[in-house]
Amino acid sequence: MPAQALRVLISGASVAGPTAAYWLSRHGFAVTVVERMPLSRVRTSGQAVDLFGPAMDVAEWTGVLPAITDGRTRTEIVSFQRQGGRGVDIEMRRLVAGISGRHVEIMRGELAAILHEATRGDAQYLFGDSISTIAQDPDGVTVTFEHAPAARFDLVIGADGLHSTVRRLVFGPEAEFRRFLGGYLAGAAMTNDLGLEGRMVVWNAPGRLAAVVPVHGTTSARGGFLFRSNEEFRLDHRDTNGQERLLHQIYGTDGWHVPRLLAVMDAAEDFYFDSISQIMMSSWVKGRVTLVGDAGYSPGPAVGGGTSIAMIGAYVLAQELALAGRDHQAGLRAYQDRMRELTVKARSIGASTMSTLIPRTSTMIRLIPELLRLITRMPPGIQQRLFQLQRTPARALDSIHLARPAD
Q1: Helix (H) or strand (E) holding 125
Q2: What whole-number distance in Å separates Cα of residue 32 and Cα of residue 179?
Q3: Which among 55, 63, 218, 365 has most CB atoms closer than 10 A?
Q4: Residue environment code for 196-232, b if the CB has 16+ CB neighbours within 10 A, otherwise e
Q5: Domains in the chain, start-ordered, CATH in brackets?
Q6: 74 Cβ partners below 8 Å, 6+ apart?
Q7: Model confidence, pTM
Q8: Are the beta carbons of 117 and 111 closer than 8 angstroms?
Q9: Radius of gyration of the chain (CA)
């Protein structure tokens, strides 16, 4: 590592953080990554996520695409359950083919583990720790941590998600930037009691759904809930007891496998619950600090392709900082300019995606699976033309061009 290498601290070790760490390290930066969760929790956290188009290019250039392909969920069928009858089965491969030519679905924890493995030899990782304070001056940034000694850095990158600590400390309270889209999601690991293999099952009621997806190559599955709400509940994002009580209020009288899923959520150590919200910022650069991924421009969990955008944003950030040399301000401005159009388009997707994911009426619950099944039976060219008329994450990603890195 060159003696004068710029020192960069990245907060967050899920997707954007390790991706940025890989490319910054490759370009000669001295990188430290801090993550509040222990590594074991990072590896098992989160639901299934999708990588589309340019994000697949980033994965390939990072050298992790074979591992990602091998670790994919292998979901072949999405089965929409019906009361007292057979489900409506949709072929995932045919459905996604109409949306994007390059796609893979993988569990978020598996993706994070792959990215950590690719970067742990080049970047220093501090797991089980978090940033306490950030103080900028003309010569750098002083950062204090909950556990590690205070340290000086040239740049700080917040890749720490929807509830970013870096954003709160540097840009202001979360409430100033978060826009509630009218829904919530929850999830946890569970045993694969349903014996699912390559099949995701989805149960709908007006305004809410429950789902189970198997984790390939294991005896585990992920259970999840998505539901609508016209008003935002006054719940802290770390108040797991309150979140669990709310799920029982929403789903407590439902049938199917919902009672089992509620019991799973109550007992789970990896229980996840959050609002479906966007982050709206006019700028995600302030001095020597910037944000990447959901921390700066979340399009909304489960509805806007946030994982793909996070990987792309991390790659663009590292690329622009490398091109700028020691003029990091020019690099940060260029990064923000290049990501602007994509983030605006991605945020426009959320409401329409929620309408498909969480139908409001019994009529729509019946019609949407049949419509999807009809579309997947059409020739691929017609499918693609139909989806091009819709707002999808893959279509938003077409607004950015990524240059292949030099060998």
Answers
A1: strand 124-127
A2: 31
A3: 55
A4: beebbbbbbbebbbbbbbbbbeeeebbbbbbbbbeee
A5: 7-50+58-72+102-177+278-350 (3.50.50.60)
A6: 198, 216
A7: 0.91
A8: no
A9: 21
